[in-house]
Design a protein that fits this description.
The protein is an alpha+beta fold. 40% of the residues lie in helices and 25% in strands. It binds glycyl-adenosine-5'-phosphate.
Length: 512
Amino acid sequence: MTQDELFKVLVAHCKEYGFIFPSSEIYDGLAAVYDYGQMGVELKNNIKQYWWNAMTRLHENIVGIDSCIFMHPRIWEASGHVSAFNDPLIDNKDSKKRYRADVLIEDYLGKIEEKVNKEVEKGRKKFGEGFDEAQFRATNPNVLREQAKWDEVHNRYVAAEKASDFAEYRQIIIDCGIVCPISGTCNWTDVRQFNLMFSTSMGSTSEGANTIYLRPETAQGIFVNYLNVQKTGRMKIPFGIAQIGKAFRNEIVARQFIFRMREFEQMEMQFFIKPGTELDWFAKWKENRMKWHVNIGMGAENYRFHDHEKLAHYANAATDIEFNFPFGFKELEGIHSRTNFDLGNHQKFSGKKIEYFDPEEGAAYTPYVVETSIGVDRMVLAVLSHSLHEEQLENGETRVVMSIPAPLAPVKAAVLPLVKKDGLPELAQEVMDLLKYDFNCQYEEKDSIGKRYRRQDAIGTPFCITVDHDSLNDRCVTVRDRDTMEQQRVPIAELRALIDAKVNLNNLLRNL
Ligand code: GAP
């Protein structure tokens, strides 16, 4: 299966099994807006809980808040979003389709990278154990040619990005022969800037309505509550404020399922520190956040850092944690050293003093900030795309399984009476009652046991518990493991401990 096909299968699977639905589907949907179904919401909640507990419970100096989506419009002037939260857009004159010019160039570079990697893999197969990758990359003519092409385009792109030279973006697109996937032509308009904030009005027109914005990041809700939290929580620097909440961006290109949405959720943490210590904290948070990701168990090789070459005007260091999505390595989380830009500007725009008196220094200052910011939906996509597999079984059949890391799985155990009679449903219900307070469980009695196993595999349930006639006498049940498909006979009294050992989120947290 190609990456594209794999992605289509994933989108269809998410709909079929109640993970994610197109929003307003009976009205033909709304572009780049998705709803979470009965399985998706459980997965999403588990991810949020893993993040929230990792931030607020494992760090005594990080507390959480929940600020509003609507905020005073001046906040977005202070933060720079009104003047500078723009994407460079370009239209194809033939298909009338709109694209992000930077994304067109980055995808082009990504394809060259893919070609180089394929060439390296061919070499690895050909030369076997003695393969020297560094030497191969330095000498193979195909690799050298592609690498030279990549270097040239990349250097031009970085220079154009630094200079905000949009005419050069267009020229790169034309020189590289990047065509519109719909029309297949290179008939491009100029590149223009497009502000991503949604606006609406507050108050009735008779009162004189105000234009307000739907927040494009949750971070500003943290900045404007810095003084409240610091004072009421008697927080001492260094300390952090964490928040999970909705954000809205009028994305130009939104064709990658829940990767780029117009309404999405962020998990952000702003860490307030003494000026001059920011690069140390930036390095610490990079390490901390990578550990959080790798700890989930989806393979360290599927993550990498991508340091920003062009820094936003307020930042003095920035990196992305990229994940290996079906369409290549792409940003999953951003870590930014934001200096005192935001607090400094809110001080200026609001006229309120935003400072911290540092007893150790005997002086007051406006704190610097290192932020970690991850999209919940991107995390859901990372988990789903990594987990969905089609497996060939020994008996020649295939099974579709979602090997979602067990602590994040939407349903932890399915309780299945072998037949719908002879007192088995009653005993199965007893098992449900025993487990339901600790775990999200599903009771299913319809269809053959094989079909029920397949349905649970498809939603990623780590355990299937079958209640059979012997269970009535020995009070033991058959427990089937999703990943190994092995079955073991377990006393009902031991079920809780067996399931807990594998699915309890605290076990993940303890490894951090
Ligand atoms: N406060 C900093 C900030 O918002 P960002 O890099 O623009 O930084 C942070 O966004 C994270 O939010 C991204 O790494 C991504 O996971 C998520 N994100 C951003 N735009 C998104 C969108 N349109 N759809 C889904 N997730 C998005």
